[in-house]
Amino acid sequence: MSFQVSEELDQLLTNIKLFLVQEVYPKEKEVIEKGFNSALPILEELRNMVKKKGWWAPAMPKEYGGMGLSFLEFARISEILGTTPIGHYIFNSQAPDIGNMELMLEFGTKDQKEKYLRRLVNGEIRSCFSMVEPDRPGSNPTWIETTAQRDRDNYIINGHKWFTSSADGATFNIVMAVTNPNGEKHKKASMLIVDMDNPGFEFIKNIPVMGEEGEGWMSHAEVKYNDCQIPITNLLGAEGEGFALAQHRLGPGRIHHCMRWIGICERAFDLMCKRAVSRRITPEANLASQQTVMNWIAECRADINAARLMVLDTANKIDTHGQYKARDDISIIKFFVANILLKVLDRAIQVHGALGVTDYTPLSYWYRHERPSRIYDGPDEVHKRAVSRRILSKYNDN
Amino acid sequence: MSFQVSEELDQLLTNIKLFLVQEVYPKEKEVIEKGFNSALPILEELRNMVKKKGWWAPAMPKEYGGMGLSFLEFARISEILGTTPIGHYIFNSQAPDIGNMELMLEFGTKDQKEKYLRRLVNGEIRSCFSMVEPDRPGSNPTWIETTAQRDRDNYIINGHKWFTSSADGATFNIVMAVTNPNGEKHKKASMLIVDMDNPGFEFIKNIPVMGEEGEGWMSHAEVKYNDCQIPITNLLGAEGEGFALAQHRLGPGRIHHCMRWIGICERAFDLMCKRAVSRRITPEANLASQQTVMNWIAECRADINAARLMVLDTANKIDTHGQYKARDDISIIKFFVANILLKVLDRAIQVHGALGVTDYTPLSYWYRHERPSRIYDGPDEVHKRAVSRRILSKYNDN
Amino acid sequence: MSFQVSEELDQLLTNIKLFLVQEVYPKEKEVIEKGFNSALPILEELRNMVKKKGWWAPAMPKEYGGMGLSFLEFARISEILGTTPIGHYIFNSQAPDIGNMELMLEFGTKDQKEKYLRRLVNGEIRSCFSMVEPDRPGSNPTWIETTAQRDRDNYIINGHKWFTSSADGATFNIVMAVTNPNGEKHKKASMLIVDMDNPGFEFIKNIPVMGEEGEGWMSHAEVKYNDCQIPITNLLGAEGEGFALAQHRLGPGRIHHCMRWIGICERAFDLMCKRAVSRRITPEANLASQQTVMNWIAECRADINAARLMVLDTANKIDTHGQYKARDDISIIKFFVANILLKVLDRAIQVHGALGVTDYTPLSYWYRHERPSRIYDGPDEVHKRAVSRRILSKYNDN
Amino acid sequence: MSFQVSEELDQLLTNIKLFLVQEVYPKEKEVIEKGFNSALPILEELRNMVKKKGWWAPAMPKEYGGMGLSFLEFARISEILGTTPIGHYIFNSQAPDIGNMELMLEFGTKDQKEKYLRRLVNGEIRSCFSMVEPDRPGSNPTWIETTAQRDRDNYIINGHKWFTSSADGATFNIVMAVTNPNGEKHKKASMLIVDMDNPGFEFIKNIPVMGEEGEGWMSHAEVKYNDCQIPITNLLGAEGEGFALAQHRLGPGRIHHCMRWIGICERAFDLMCKRAVSRRITPEANLASQQTVMNWIAECRADINAARLMVLDTANKIDTHGQYKARDDISIIKFFVANILLKVLDRAIQVHGALGVTDYTPLSYWYRHERPSRIYDGPDEVHKRAVSRRILSKYNDN
């Protein structure tokens, strides 16, 4: 394999995989069934095991209590964690917290780091990210309605957001709001930290998504900001830099997501193969004897391999040349891998037959909760348009 | 349109559609949220409205309290009812009850009709159909494990079933069991009526499907038959005719399902178009301005039209030449329409963006609960194989 | 089948099919290999056989020497003729002549009919249709460059056209040219009859298409009009009505094309099935034992059935309500059937293996010469846009 | 890019690409139109230019007059050469000659190398490879009919082959024939060198493929071996090793083909983009403004990138671990890249509209002559089956 991993990392990946198979897979069904809050004791126990093994927060610097792995190393780990719906949480590497950690690490003030980041990395608190609005397309982050008006040493935030994921039970929130309404398109918005107990912050409810309202980390909230006053020291990064920070957050975020999706693909692939060899369709023959199933297995193998190479190549480009030069690749993997993910899940379900639609495998969970992968962080259509425009602009220049 | 409907039927369809839009659509979300049992008062009220309008049980004979519509007439109504998840229930035409009604109407003894059918058509009781087994592929109905051993005037049933849909709260059950283990492949099994309060019948639980255990009519049970004794008078049809009856049940059943799916498609299509014209993606442009969305609308329109023509043509063939001669067409529409259904739903969700994965439209309900359409009543692969074998056998004969 | 054909037509279809199988299929390879001009004696002999059988020009009125069949009857015959690349020619129902016949029959003056139509229907001469221009998109027929300037009793035509199919050897041409440059968009152009021996008409060359320049009827010419003077009596229809006439020509034309494509599909399907049962892949097994091949056969059967129902339904609508009301259906079948055609051909080739890419079956001919089906008469994309816009306009009006 | 190329190779690739654009692209249409034999002077001139530049036979060792590039280096060059239909020929790296060169280089005797290989690498002669038989599936190379019977110091070959590509004008042939009919399945056949002027060798004809018989290097012959006597010194490799050698030939051969296909994809992609920005569809808008075209460009970019990464990764594995360990990857890229190739070509044609089906771009040539890519060297279906079986066998072992 050309995107070589060091022997050390290889060993780590093997160990983590083994831990997941032995300790985590057996508990994922119970966690999903109970719901996040009731399952917290189980999750805490698993988190403690991870901490003891020295694998906590692999992407965070050692000084904050993480493993201090590089971007490319964490990408590999993210794939392994993705093989179970609770993998990232158990390693304290779950969205949206990990994105917030990365943002604060790079752009947070010393105080912000002490107050928020340290406890976040420790796993003491959770956070959320409040960008999408019900009345504005998530695909157009330059067009938002929420405002944060400067009032001496404070900002007064007003607005309505939804899909503020994991808000339920979170301690703070990073909100995107227009601070410079007359600024140019990409310079209007800023990111602001809002404590959830701020009286101007209103938690409306967890939105029912795919049949579940969910709870705790596993939920998507609708929230409101009603003359919500925060000190200007809660500005994250510079004023007007909200869009830039959001982009900055999304680049590595998409690598994390994509690697997680590949992890899901591998688990689904494994389940599909196991089912194929174990399920008899007549007393003499099993599903693996069916050429249609064989085709799916070969095609899924091809697709997953392609997905991984694409993501690693993109991660490598980000690492070498920076996000800006890799922006086409980042857009491409977003739609390319999300579509492979859903195709692999669909086929794994079909191979499982009736069992595939039950909650006795994680497939039905992913079928529901990964359908949004083609929508969030920019729907397929928006990424295709973006990639194509940049390609064609080079032709137009000639 | 070449599959002409009479002016009278056309008027009826229009009236029913209007009723659904005005009275039922506004309540579907509440019903799904509350769950079947809690929503019963709402459902009962709607059922009473339907009765008052004289639209009750449209496919059942007038002597049993139905409308006495023909097979082809009901197919049209089934499409309209399919536009809401609770349409068929409100008209007492829901699976699995309607299939059981059809079976009993044709094959039931006078006593069976009096004891079960009449109350079923009246809507006093519910029923279920117990065929699929967890350890045997649903795709091979000639290979089942459950047995019904003759013991003088009784049968003693033993076996393990799942996806006995709507068992929760049902009054009786039609179970498929092997009565003639030494009979030829298609003559081994029989259908037997089992009262749910039979001490040998064990309701294990509702299987969690796509994140929900469901309840009442909206559930899929795992059940067991433990030396379950029933009188031989509870045999439905002749001994050894279980497979034949199942096929008989499935033919019209597939028409009902397919027309229901087309109804879902039409609703999803309508929601997609409404969303396209109402959702702005910039202050100046709405989604309908996007060629990708236009492509989907045109392609969905084409696919839905094709689906309807295929199903009506098949229904017509069943009506004219009988199920046997139409068996290829029945297999074809099963996989053809189910795939169109899922494609249309997927696109409608994508056009809705984040809203599409919430439970604020019926799309997410159908996305979850119609995924099985490609699995139950024979997965795509089995139907394709069956159709192809018959076609190729003609070539082999030459 | 719900789109019933009369017993008489059914018999005719059977007879024609038998004739094609026995007399025409065996000669199609030779005709294609030799090229149109060298193959003329063979074609003439076959045409004479058709005349003797009384099947000549089935869509033309009896007074002109045709069979006088209705639009819907001819649609059925068109399917049968489509099963061989030379079927339509042998029955004098080939594009572009049949389109020209239909136009002249409805809009030609008495003189035009005598001079051109009668000889065309007799099969004495051939014609062509000159609309598409190399520098203007064929998908936008309201934007053409060729002009026809009125000069007393004449028009002076200037312009450059290509894909003037079958111009090589034709006697006359119907050209689309702008006569009213200041007219509104759809009223600028007119149709004009140009004799090919007009000194202002320049035949440049047959365009090499898919590796062949072709010749005679089987060719696509590039032509020029250099101050080409024609009498005003050669105006076909009214001045400024060119676009309307073109639309008028296209409606039934698309039915003819679609039914022809379905004929191709049926032949390809038949070849695929024959190959599947006859080709051994090991000493013991043939291709028909492969589930992938089975899937293709079932899916192609489904697609072809759907295609036929869609086209017949559309033809029926045109017949009942006129072209205008059926224009969405006409657009839909154009892209729906063309895509099925190419998919069926592709799969039939794959089943044939190496044989499939040789010229020993008609598949390779169709693979090459029907690829344009997704382009001519409006590419898929244009039809999808048109259908979608009309659908969405109804939503916008609300 | 993670599959780094050296600066030196990078410069070479740039120079070759420039040469192709300036000197070769302008002549490709003429070569294809004239046919191979008439175009030989043009091709010879271009070959001489390549020799002068020191780029001759890049994959061959310097001692034979080649550039002595490594397998991975040549893979990169193969992509560039693939951008024109005559690229590989001009660099004397065309199939089937390059495969024969590789075989002889590794398995040829000293005499065979002197007599055949040296002249082949020099470009003095051409060769062919005779494996596929009309009556046996090419997908099953262990089941062939042609025999080579030992008769003292000779073999007597009898058999019937087709798709002996480039036989027309070749000097020698490597034929696959059964020498050990009682050997085990993979040990029956051997490879034998046959001079084309051997009286027992019969050139029947060039098979018409996709409308063309072709000639010279650009042709596919049907041939016969009639008691064709050759000395045993013409055995290539050991007796019974024919299958092993064929596999050996195919591994790198598939890399060459895949990289060539990617070259075709890149050229088609480039043509598609150029067309998109240059073709106006209204006086105001060009094709590039159409979202459908944008989607295709983004999707093609994603697919081509994925294809290249997959092939380079596989080449890397072959290089590092040998063909055997990379056999799944080799099978995967065979079907994965061939399907991308045909999809990209199809879309590029669609974007070109009518121009796309003419021979004015190389697209129509590739559309016809690369359709076999999904068939030769093992059809998609065979590779999928092979990959899947190996994957599932690991699950069965558990």
Report what the structure shows.
Four copies of one chain form a homotetramer. In chain A, α5 runs antiparallel to α6, α5 packs antiparallel against α7 and α7 packs antiparallel against α8 (291-321). The relative contact order of chain A is 0.10. The first copy, chain A, is globular and about 80 Å long. In chain A, strands 2, 3, 6, 7 and 8 form a five-stranded antiparallel beta sheet that branches. In chain A, strands 1-4-5-9 form a four-stranded mixed beta sheet. The first copy, chain A, contains twelve helices and nine strands. Chain A has three domains: 7-94, Butyryl-Coa Dehydrogenase, subunit A, domain 1 (Orthogonal Bundle), CATH 1.10.540; 127-240, Butyryl-CoA Dehydrogenase, subunit A, domain 2 (Beta Barrel); 244-397, Butyryl-CoA Dehydrogenase, subunit A, domain 3 (Up-down Bundle), CATH 1.20.140. Chain A has helices spanning 7-34, 36-53, 71-82, 87-90, 97-107, 110-122, 242-278, 291-321, 327-352, 354-357, 363-369, 380-397; strands at residues 127-130, 147-151, 154-165, 172-178, 189-195, 201-206, 214-215, 218-231, 235-236. Helices cover 53% and strands 15% of the residues of chain A. Chain A is of the alpha+beta class and 398 residues long. In chain A, β7 and β8 form a beta hairpin. The interface between A and B is large, with 45 and 45 residues.
